[in-house]
Design goal:
It is elongated, with a radius of gyration of 18 Å. The chain has one domain. The longest helix has 8 residues. Strands 1-2 form a two-stranded antiparallel ribbon. The chain is an alpha+beta fold and 65 residues long.
């Protein structure tokens, strides 16, 4: 394992989890998405990823002439 810069940031980037706390516990920003990772079945809520799960892209063309 190679450590450079901030070891805590390096480790947090490599952990395959939905939430990683460094030197704290249960610290949430209400705007930050939370949820499972990979095949946990929980998904992401409260963030852009959660909204995308309930939407479909649509193209609407309107002739303004």
């Amino acid at each position: 394992m190679k450590w450079c810069g901030r070891p805590d940031h390096s480790l947090a980037a490599r952990i395959r989890a939905g939430t990683v706390w460094v030197n704290c516990y249960q610290a949430f920003d209400t705007a930050a998405p939370f949820g499972g990772f990979k095949m946990s079945g929980i998904g992401r809520e409260l963030g852009e990823q959660g909204l995308e799960a309930y939407t479909e892209t649509k193209t609407v063309t309107v002739n303004l002439n």
